[in-house]
Automatic annotation (TrEMBL):
Protein name, as recorded: Unannotated protein
Localisation: Cell membrane
PROSITE patterns, sorted: SRP54
Coarse class of the protein's main subcellular location: membrane
Sequence ranges assigned to domain SRP54-type proteins GTP-binding in this UniProt record: 354-367
Record keywords: Cell membrane, Cytoplasm, GTP-binding, Hydrolase, Membrane, Nucleotide-binding, Receptor, Transmembrane, Transmembrane helix
Naturally occurring in which organism (per UniProt): freshwater metagenome
GO cellular component, one term: plasma membrane
GO molecular function terms attached to this record: GTP binding; GTPase activity; signal recognition particle binding
SUPFAM superfamilies linked: Domain of the SRP/SRP receptor G-proteins (SSF47364), P-loop containing nucleoside triphosphate hydrolases (SSF52540)
Membrane topology, from the record: Peripheral membrane protein
Family, per entry: Belongs to the GTP-binding SRP family.
Organism lineage: unclassified sequences, metagenomes, ecological metagenomes
NCBIfam families: ftsY
Amino acid sequence: MDSSLVYAGIAVAVILVLVIAAVAVRRRGGSGRPVESGPAPAGVVAAADLTELLEPTESPSPTAPQMGLLEVEVPDPAAGRLHRLRARLARSNNAIGHGLFALLSRDSIDAATWDEIEETLLLADLGVGPTNEIIERLRTTLKVEGGSRSPDDVREALRAALLSLVDPNLDRELITLAAGRPAVLMIVGVNGTGKTTTTGKLARLLVAEGRSVVLGAADTFRAAAADQLQTWGDRVGATVVRGPESGDPAAVAFDAVSAGVRSGADTVVIDTAGRLHTKAGLMDELDKVKRVIEKQSAVDEVLLVLDATTGQNGLVQARVFAESVNVTGIVLTKLDGTARGGIVIAVQRELGVPVKLVGLGEGPDDLAPFDPVEFVDALVAN
Ligand SMILES: Nc1nc2c(ncn2[C@@H]2O[C@H](COP(=O)(O)OP(=O)(O)OP(=O)(O)O)[C@@H](O)[C@H]2O)c(=O)[nH]1
Ligand SMILES: [Mg+2]
């Protein structure tokens, strides 16, 4: 072979390798800046990069499942999600619906039956006050109707009594938009109630409505907590701001809100570490996280996540959290796994704060805005 041809081939190959290397170096130089609150673990989107990331699709649309190089999912719309509760309650042997209806439908409701009714309501976590109220109401309604109690009358009496206790007039609006800045939501509660899952599901709900969302991983106790949130964020293209393990949770929350402000995000949701309500130091820390955020932005919602299966214990937690931070709404999780729907009524009574969201399962879209009418209808459904 002609040696000049060989030299020419080698020269072309060398030029190609140099061009590829130059492109790779330029690409790397454009990203990977560290998160402000500390060195960035792998997979973190640095706060300063948010603007670039969000600019092309500032409001990720459900019809545009691509964002940058990430494949993002299209979450279910919020409307109609609470319908699933009916099926879930049917499976969980819902005490209020089935038990109470059977008792009230007996030919004669004697003193022993009223005792059973009371017991059923207490077992469903309704609490003593609301239980007495509902029994008074039912006694009056059903007495007036005398002997002509059809199953429909009973169901309607039960429905009306429950509905008045769940209180359809409470303002349950979840503030997720604010004028001229992102709305800021904090998610708080004891260990394992479903805070991180709720933060992730909430991001999906918001993305489904076309919002741009920043998540703050202010649970710095365990690296796995931030990874868990990162996974939720990645699935729907929500940016996750995180800090170093054991770092200051208030600093991460502050950075997440700054990042949201800079990128023009609609909503910033801050996931916090689980904490025992009995540990004063941890409750003070929560208050500090809130105060540090408030140096740059109002906190629009503090959502207390309660596990519906823990019953009356949840009420004790709720009281202490409400004393530490100004709780604006309750998220009642794991309602799919309990026959104790009465906790909705009890906790609202206890705090005077409405249930705004309910968790209905472990699926990514098993979080629904709470609607009192739909909830009661699901409880008393056939
Ligand atoms: N069945 C059911 N499971 C749920 C629901 N919400 C959360 N979970 C499950 O509860 C478990 C705990 O959820 P996490 O979101 O990690 O709880 P957490 O409050 O962040 O926990 P810590 O950060 O450790 O305090 C997980 O297995 C979730 O899948 C729900 O509505 N229904
Ligand atoms: Mg968590």
